[in-house]
Every structure is written in C-alpha cells, then in structure tokens.
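Same chain as my last thread, 466 residues:
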Amino acid sequence: MANTNGKKLDRIKSNIFSRTVSLAKFSLNAGAGLAGQGLTKIFKSEEAGEIQWNQFIAAQAENFSKEIGELKGSIMKAGQMLSMYGEHFFPPEVNKYFKTLQQDSPALKWEAIEPLIIKYLGAEKYHELDVDHEPLACASLGQVHRAVIKKTKESVVLKVQYPKVDKAIDSDLRAIRTFIQLLKILPQDTALDPVFEEIKEMLLQESDYEQEAKKTMQFYERVKDDPRFIVPKIYPEFSNKRILTSSFERGLRLEDDLIQSLSQERRNQLAQNFLDLYFQELFIWKDLQTDPHAGNYKIRLAADGKDQWVLFDFGATRSYSDSFLNAYHRMIKGSLVNNPQMLRAAAKDLKFIYDHDDPLLIEKFEEFCIETVEPFLEAADPRQKGPVDEQGNYDWKTTDLPQRLSKRVLEIIKNFKWRTPPREILFLDRKTGGVFIIMSLLKAKMNSRPTIMKYLNSVHANSDTV
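reply #2:
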C-alpha cells in the first residue's frame, strides 16, 4: 500500500457513468493527439520521428496514469497488474507510468471515508470502535485505518473498501484495453484475452473481503506454530464483504535503517525464512499470496536475533491445480539439474512451447528458463553467470539478472511471433519477481540451492516423471 502523505481526495468517481465519461473524455483527447501524430507514426523509422512518437506515447501514458489515480478502484489495480507484465511487451515509455500507480495513490479524506465505515459496519458496531482519522496506508481498492476496540482495548486495523469497486470492473478493464488499442502500442495479433480474464478474476477476488478474511485465517492456521512468521488475527464481528478488521501488528518496513543495518547473518536468515515460506506456498500448500511487494511485509526484530516476518494482505492469494504445478515443478527441476528433456516436456505441457515451434525459439526459451533459476545453480555449474562465491553464496543485490531476463524476453518477442503465456503465469510471475525484490532489499548473500532441491525432491520423490 502507498504512503498517505500529500494530497487527499474529497471523493472518488464511483458512479459507472461518471467514470465512463472521464475515461471517454481521455480517449477522445488521446485520439485527437493521435490524429495529429499520424504522419510521425508513418515515418517513425526515422530517428526524429521515433523520438517524437515516443514523446507522444509517454505524454498519453502519463495523462492516463493521472486519470486512473483520481478514479482509483479496479482500473488503478489493473494498471498495477499490467505493469508487472509490461516489462515484456509494453514500450518503456508506457510501462514507466503504469509502474508509478504502485506508489502514487492519494488517500480519501476522513469526511468521505467515515460514512463508508458506518455504512459497512452499521452505526452500533462503528461506535464500539475508536477509529483514527488519519489512514495508515492507502491503495487502489481501499485504505487502512488504525482503531481501538473500546471494550477490550485491543488495537486493530480496518481495511475499508472504496465505494462500488466491484461494480466498475468490467467497464474499467474495457477502458484500459481501449487505451492500449487506441495507441497501437502492442503487435496487432497480441492475444490479451487470457491476461485480462486472469486480471478480472483476481480483481473480483480482491474486492471480496470475506474471501480475503478466509484466506488470512487459512494462512494464520498454517504458520501459527512456526515462530518465524506472524499473520494478523481476523475479527469477524467487525468484518464483512466491504470491510476487513484484523489485529494491529507492529514491525519495521524492509527499507528501515534498522533492518538495512542488521548483520549479514541476520539478513540472510530473514531471506532464508522468506524463501522457505515461498517454497511452502509453491510446493506444499499450492496456494500463493501473489502480491509480494515490500509494503505487504514487516519485520519484528528480536533481542535474541530470531527475527520474525509479519505477513499482510491475502486478497490476491491464488490456488493452483496439481496438474499445472506438477509441470511447473518439473520445468524448474529440469532447469536446475540440466535435464533438457525434462525441461522441454514440462514446457510443452504448460503450453509455453509446441512441437511445431521454430527450434531456435525452443532453444531461446530453454536458455531463459536456465537463467531464471540462476540464484539456485551450483557455483561450479558452467551455466552460472551470476555473482556467486565458491561456497555457492549468490549475491541477490548486485546481480544484473532482472535486466538480462528482460533482454531475453525482448529478443524472443522481436524475433518470433508473440504468444501470450498461460494465464496462470501472470500472477505466478508477479510472485517470483516480488520474491526476488525482497531478497535484493535484504541484500542476501546465501546458498539457496539446498532449500529448493529439498522441496523439489520431496514433492517428486515417488514420481516416475522426474
């Protein structure tokens, strides 16, 4: 969730008609600008025309991101979701502004949010709470306020949903597609339907706080006996489809100076515990919290050095089928143990590649997979190109792996017909990328191969396919 400093909104355009008018007005303006740029586009192979076209695209993307920020709701969340995929197919000028949506989210003023809390909870329940007027955090779908239960003096937080978020999902997604199509920023044959279907499904889920409460309680039960992790307690009597109340859990953000100044050993231990949680989600529970940005985690320091992770926001939790994950696990293992047959068979099962594909495309895809698992390769592996010492300790902070992976994807898109990956990959990629960012923020230097191999070997110990 975003910082709440700066300007606050008096209201949100929650009415479908007013949102549609706003977005239609933007589209008309963009269309008029596009008409004025027509000749530039025709001749954009020329250097000057290319620069002018890029500037036009950047200006339209900036205007669009500002409009989204004022509207909030599903259109802003969808823009955030697309930004994680945008590295692979949006022009940098566009994705730059989609990315800013993850930070630039103004809060709604107390005078506008209080009536919502009363409406969602009812006046009687509302008066059982003493709610702080200043939000702790805000995002696209809602904002968080700290409160105290008057009777018990327990500190809690209220996650309050903005009005009519779920009602606007279809129209908001259409607006984003119109923006993309209007500016012709993607190849004409790009199949975006699976991507938008996955985004819609996740938006519907994230706007249902009863579903989030259930997922939070599931994770609470999973880790309640594991001292490394803390999941907030849910208060059902103050929760429903539009408001979610949970225990207030103290902790420090990963960027905090105290966290950053911890010894390498303690930061490595935190990183190891975080990776272990990720692998439990991926291999054991088959249920992943797919929004792992730094704002959804805090660290509670302990005098004995046994620091804890505080885990927030389970609205974007997604379950995966055994058939999908079995193939995904095999693709990972084939990459790690240098088994091209296993890797290729799994990639075909997942429909990343097909028998009739260009052999060079298959080769490039396999190289991409191998590079993706680089932090888990052995130091002596000739495929290892990352910053790793003789003990296999990989430096997650200094590696240029994300840049190399982006180049590989762009090379595939440029030289081969673009094919949208399986829809399940959208949020799985977000999870993987988020884990990498967390490891980088902790400046981890560690050998993680034994951990991932433990899970891979355990899951497939009795499988003839691995």
